[in-house]
Amino acid sequence: MDSAVAAARAVEAGHDVVGVHLALNRMPGTLRTGSRGCCTIEDSNDAWRACDRLGIPFYVWDFSERFKEDVVDDFVSEYAAGRTPNPCMRCNERIKFAALLEKALALGFDAVCTGHYAKVVRDADGHPQLHRAADWAKDQSYVLAVLTHEQLEHCLFPLADTPSKAEVRAEAERRGLSVAAKPDSHDICFISDGDTRGWLAERIEMAPGAIVDETGEKVGEHAGANAYTVGQRRGLRLGRPAPDGRPRFVLEVRPKDNTVVVGPERLLAVGEIRGIRVSWAGLPPSEATTGEEFACEAQVRAHGDPVPARARLEPAAAPGAPDAHDGELVVTLETPLRGVAPGQTVVLYQGTRVLGQATIDTARSPERLLPR
Length: 372
What we know:
SH3 type barrels; Elongation Factor Tu (Ef-tu), domain 3; six-stranded antiparallel β-barrel; MnmA-like_C
């Protein structure tokens, strides 16, 4: 629905618009109704009807092989390594604004136009910056933080200044688009029944192992460490209650020794995050090249609240080395965040502007420093 309205606005603005549906999934169960997932056969038919209504050409581009390699296989390997990945980040990074944009530019198009709720703003020198959308409740700048300066030069987000999703729905209905009442997509699109644990169990070898508390004492057993995520409370099936009788939570997953660490809720509070695979949404802040600390806000979930923080980039190699551009993003949180897991994404903001992002490698509690 968002994409259809975005296309309609692009047509009205005088652009030469072509509708493209991405065929990403060849797996069984991709034809389903309701709001779970996206990029299904049902969605393809909806897109065709919207393009027909707008009088623009419609094509289906098959990116299923690349989607499997860059998103699905990455999702499995990250869980196998004990991390909690965000497949939507990878899809935006490697499919919608890499594979799709590369093909579009090669065919002579100027930009990829989507229904994301985010905004591209030009600075005084004309460089693109990524900002939050007007409707913060639907803001999707977090999952777009992987976009680079070059990609932002070729992005068009017509819904950026729309005050609310309700207004977009009303516009879709007014334009006679059949998707006006279509529910929002949610959950992981390539897991058709929503059972992530069961889906992973078919692809990752699970072996029983120990559940230990924060002191290292064994308090239970698990059927496979990779099925657990930091912050999880339910389904632990511990044989021994905590001394204070309070619930325990997953603090850490250690795939190397097949161990799950649990402990009290207070130890989920994280004060420092270290991130890898750092990228900047637009030009990097000047401090990124000097290693100086800069003030920002940090957000670790798509619809989480940003918290005040300070960040700095530590080079991974000496200046002049071939990989000196790589580094580790160190984020010190002024307000601790709860249940931050390796594999998640930390996105840095200054006001409404997205500075950049990194994949969380370690998250440290003020009370419990995890080994790096």
